[in-house]
Hints:
Blueprint: H1 15-21, H2 24-27, H3 31-47, H4 53-72, H5 84-96, H6 109-145, E1 150-155, E2 158-164, H7 165-190, E3 192-193, H8 209-215, E4 220-221, H9 225-230, H10 233-259, E5 267-268, H11 287-310, H12 324-348, E6 350-351, H13 353-360, H14 367-376, H15 381-398, H16 407-413, H17 421-424, H18 427-432, H19 442-462
Parallel strand pairs: 3-4
Antiparallel strand pairs: 1-2, 5-6
The structure holds arginine.
Arginine binds near residues 27, 83, 113, 317 and 319.
Amino acid sequence: MAKLWAGRTAGETDRLADDFNSSIRFDCKLYRQDVTGSMAHAAMLGAKGILTQEEAKTLIDGLAGILSDLESGKLAFDWSCEDIHMFVEQELTNRLGSLGKKLHTARSRNDQVALDLRMYLREESDALDAEIRDLLDALLAQAEQHRATILPGYTHLQRAQPITFGHHLLAYAMMLLRDLDRLRDGRKRINCSPIGCCALAGTTYDTDRRMEAEALGFDDICRNSIDGVSDRDFCVELLSDCALLMMHLSRFAEELILWSSWEFQFVELSDAYTTGSSIMPQKKNPDMAELIRGKTGRVYGDLLALLTTLKGLPLAYNKDLQEDKESVFDALETVHQCLRVLTPMVRTMRVRADKMLQAAQTGFLNATDLADYLVRKGLPFRSAYKLSGELVAECLRRGCVLETLPLEVYRTYSPLFGEDLYDEIRLENCVEKRISEGGTSARSVDGQIAYVREQLRKGSERK
Ligand code: ARG
């Protein structure tokens, strides 16, 4: 096929070099944005008298036809085109003859590709936003149900203090709220129109960049044409938001994996989100959760790949920038997949409150509360801490727990101990007493749930 740039060069490019250069295999994803952007461009050219209104209308109708034919499957991509932009222009010219060749007046593929990508990522960011809110919904439903369900809280993966399951789940809700906040903030910087920056220097035609930007739903235009065609910060930001989000999902997935192990048995994942083993008949494997954990690495990789591509690029457009799309597409596809699987997994998991409580009953989770009891009786905290430690050691020697250690023994350690100590160290009490804001008591969990709901409500008002 004759090259777009035939004129400057006469020779054929090598077939392998053509394949190497071409991006249509992956940027075909941008067809809708490309056609819609071109429609707005034709409208602007018509409104400004750069093309006649008649010509603009014919171009717009032609583009609309291409879009609906692509969508209905009547029109297939021509993989021999270099990229999606060339494909649409070629198809338009096939349909409209030489008028099709007028569409590319006062623009370049450099501002066109940046425009398409920003329009695409703006939608993707909104889709992610909705998926994160779904996951938050699932977390809140479980947290509500388990506002008072007791389990061991861990530090160093050693049993530390009793907490409520609602409290633990809400820790993830807070991470996801921050993820939402970051996405929404980044969206402002995505939603800036580069179209009209042209190749890099702007144009001699009397264009109206703002008209085009407004027609396409942008909040602003890129203020410097060189920056407009070479800026990919918005891609890096979105990828970094994805990487952080995946880190959160991965930590949660890791806990689901631990909790569904025979050793913990805190949750049972639905059959819909587990697999069996090909050899061991008893196995129920948390494959999907493991994949969420595993795929986190590839999203980090996408972020690093793009940052590395951008490093040291001279201004303005360089073909290296074509590499942005595969990283971004791969990361987004991965994050969508993970969220779509994790949300129903959380919704359907069976929480084993009995096993959680059983685990909380061993491991001396109430030792801090025993020390606090002595503090309330007048002992300085450090001394109370030491005494409680000695009592734990005593229990270990006797093979009992703090709840079953007889009062006489307690009293050999300190006369401050009275019958009321047993009430103080009851697990339910240890949890209920932790009413400090953000703490683990059921009441505090209710407050945190209300906070998350309020943030979600405010956020959706802003949108
Ligand atoms: N396929 C190219 C990309 O994705 C489009 C821009 C091409 N511009 C150019 N000057 N070769 O970046």
